[in-house]
Specification:
By secondary structure, this protein is of the alpha+beta class. It has nine helices and eight strands.
């Protein structure tokens, strides 16, 4: 993507040097969101969970090994009466001690490829989790950028109002002086006072808006105070871009689309696993056992011990499962189709959104040029009306209207630039940047 920086407009960049406050750049804000945001940190936990599922201990290639042991004590008696001429047998309190220890192991040799399919699916799930976190990160940075430029807009309008208030105060002083000498009416003085009051109220409104927006930005960056300034300059970067290139970039790099494509891959594994659900399994197994028993002297058997090693192979094949595999296959096919439809539907919606943004952006670029001319016209008109007003040839109402026209032209010029910048941010978001 060729991005040519065409227009750099710096407006009122000397705020920080005058106030002594630090200037917070948009790049610094994005870094703080990356490093400090709790929502993003919570989202990263899904990556850790997916990484656990891809570890070597969850791949099915590790053998199982089981150790079992036991100790026992018995106290018993025997009484036997014979039908023939044999003495009865009566032995009581026969004590015996016994113990056993054994170890067994199993290892899956073959399962029709299900183990490999699940491992590959877990790897894709890990990629899917990373893409989701990237999408959340991008959304948070986009939100922070919107708030940042909202603060810049409020600061710019605040400066315009400060300039307007300064002009209104100067006009009040001049009108009051003229009134003392009888060349202005009391109405002119009252109009000047009303304009000062109105400018002061508007100024306080913007100051309050700036504080509130800064707290919103702090929520994303975990800053604890609002004692910083914002860079109000605007740089537009997409003016010579091509819509076809942007569309191709969206289809290739959009984080949401990448996650949906990965979801299609994950669902495809579900179908493959369902197809192999009833595949035969072959396991290797082995074990070793040792049994021991020690009796007291009342027993006929004094000591018994046996041990043995066994190795073998076992196989199982679920030939008929009552149609469960068929059900799993059908559900997997439906999920596969749904995932693909979701992907194509989202691709179409995002292309439409990009085209809408691009058209609005082009219109704003044309409007910027018109607003530039409008500012120059209003500046000339304001200076002319101001000169006539000072010479008593224009009323205070006409002077105030010329003042408002200039302020509105300056504000509209900045607002159109800001609208274009916000559209660029949204285009960046769609392009996965």
């Amino acid at each position: 993507m060729i991005r040519v920086i065409i227009l750099v407009i710096g407006l009122f960049c000397g705020i920080a040097s005058m106030s002594g406050q630090s200037v917070l750049s948009i790049d610094q804000v994005l870094i703080e969101v990356e490093n400090n945001n709790y929502d993003l940190e919570a989202a990263r936990q899904s990556i850790l969970s997916a990484e656990v599922l891809t570890s070597k201990y969850n791949r099915g290639y590790q053998p199982t090994l089981t150790l079992n042991a036991g100790l026992g004590y018995s106290l018993s008696g025997v009484k036997t009466t014979f039908n023939f001429n044999f003495p009865d047998l009566n032995i009581q309190n026969i004590q015996a001690f016994n113990g056993n220890i054994g170890v067994s192991s199993d290892y899956l040799l073959y399962d029709g490829g299900q183990r490999n399919l699940r491992n590959d699916q877990n790897i894709d799930n890990l990629d899917f989790a990373r893409l989701q976190v990237d999408n959340i990160r991008q959304q948070l940075k986009f939100n922070a950028s919107q708030i940042y430029y909202g603060i810049a807009q409020a600061m710019y309008n605040k400066e315009l109002l400060e300039e307007s208030l300064s002009i209104s105060k100067e006009r009040y002083k001049r009108t009051a002086t003229y009134y003392e000498y009888g060349s202005r009416s009391r109405v002119d003085v009252l109009n000047a006072e009303v304009d000062i009051s109105r400018d002061s109220i508007n100024l306080m409104t913007f100051e309050n808006d700036i504080i509130n927006l800064k707290w919103q930005l702090n929520q994303l960056t975990l800053r604890e105070d609002t004692d910083y300034e914002i860079d109000t300059s605007i740089t537009l970067t997409y003016q010579l871009s091509n819509i076809i290139e942007l569309q191709n970039g969206l289809l290739e790099d959009n984080k949401e689309l990448m996650a949906l494509r990965k979801n299609v891959d994950v669902v495809n594994y579900d179908l493959a696993i369902a197809n192999n659900l009833n595949a035969p399994q072959i396991l290797a197994n082995g074990g070793y056992t040792l049994n021991y028993q020690k009796n007291d002297s009342k027993s006929q058997l004094d000591l018994s011990r046996n041990n043995g090693l066994n190795l073998g192979l076992s196989a199982n094949w679920n030939i008929l499962d009552g149609g469960q595999r068929k059900v799993q296959e059908q559900l997997a096919v439906v999920d596969q189709s749904s995932a693909f439809i979701d992907l194509k539907n989202r691709e179409n919606a995002l292309i439409v959104q990009l085209n809408r943004l691009w058209n609005a952006y082009q219109n704003n670029l044309l409007t910027i040029q018109l607003e530039k001319k409008n500012i120059r016209i209003n500046e000339v008109n304001f200076e002319l009306v101001k000169s006539l007003y000072e010479n008593g040839q224009q009323s205070s109402v006409e002077f105030r209207q010329a003042q408002l026209n200039l302020i509105n032209a300056q504000s509209q010029f900045y607002n159109v630039q800001l609208a274009a910048k916000l559209q660029e941010l949204e285009i960046d978001f769609l392009l996965g940047k």
